[in-house]
Amino acid sequence: MKDTLVQIAGLKKVYQTGDVIFEALKGVSLDITAGDYVAIMGPSGSGKSTLLHLIGGLDQPSDGTVQVGEHSLDTMSETGLAKFRRTHIGFIFQFFNLIDNLTVRANVELPALLANSRDKRAIQQRSRLLLERLGILDQAHKHPWELSGGQQQRVAIARALINEPVLLLADEPTGNLDSTSGQDVLDILDECNALGQTILGVTHDAVAASRANTVLFILDGHLVGKLPGGDASGIAQYLADLTT
């Protein structure tokens, strides 16, 4: 039996602007097993990205606990969270978030250099392997603005994997891509998961969500449903019923 990697209990997140209070999460609890592939779906404003950010240590909860491996994120300082993110989490974003004045290779290697986890030669070897595996080694000397959207997302995936994260977080990874490039990215995520990578993704796309083993549905800050992956039409119908 595989170990539980992520444990969340009673998670709440409240934002306040002046006198306006917004409860983004209202007591969410869930477990994610090491090696699993989980997708989270819900309408805009439902709390799915907030949940992803709390699990990744990009924000801290108003209440409740977040445990990733042996790390209790809800009790960490900002410095501790920054170190945790660098060494344990890989992030893939909708708009790639690459640094335009760095080459593809430099973008991929940057998190490893910041983490100071390997010598420079080992970092270069791993980046080369990742770029080759993702089919963009021939683009290593170029800058992000010289690449297509699909190629940029491949660079972002390589960057997310450079430190061998325990958890890969994907926030709308195909949301800014054409359908063909999007399918290519989903194929890459499938391959990563087949090699044992734990993945948690947020998406509006039922086809993307269907690639996961499990699909969770969130509405108004509550987890309200769960389906197995594989059936895009069933997932789309469930989400439509949930929001009407």
Which regions contain 5 or more consecutive residues with pLDDT less than 50? none
How much is the radius of gyration in Å?
A: 18 Å
CATH class: Alpha Beta
Helical proportion, percent range: 25-40%
C-alpha end-to-end distance: 39 Å
CATH homologous superfamily identity:
P-loop containing nucleotide triphosphate hydrolases
CATH topology: Rossmann fold
| Strand numbers in spatial order across the main sheet | 6-7-8-3-9-10
Molecular structure report:
The chain has a single domain (34-60, 74-242), classed as 3-Layer(aba) Sandwich (Rossmann fold), CATH 3.40.50. It has 8 helices and 10 strands. The chain has helices at 48-55, 78-88, 104-115, 120-133, 149-161, 179-194, 206-210, 232-242, and strands at residues 4-17, 20-33, 37-41, 63-68, 71-72, 89-93, 167-171, 198-202, 214-219, 222-228. The strands form 2 sheets. The chain has a 6-stranded mixed β-sheet with strand order 6-7-8-3-9-10, with helices on both faces. The longest helix is centred in the C-terminal third of the chain and has 16 residues, at 179-194.
Relevant terms:
244 residues; alpha/beta; Rossmann fold; six-stranded mixed beta sheet; four-stranded antiparallel beta sheet; globular
Topology:
Blueprint: E1 4-17, E2 20-33, E3 37-41, H1 48-55, E4 63-68, E5 71-72, H2 78-88, E6 89-93, H3 104-115, H4 120-133, H5 149-161, E7 167-171, H6 179-194, E8 198-202, H7 206-210, E9 214-219, E10 222-228, H8 232-242
Parallel strand pairs: 3-8, 3-9, 6-7, 7-8
Antiparallel strand pairs: 1-2, 1-4, 4-5, 9-10
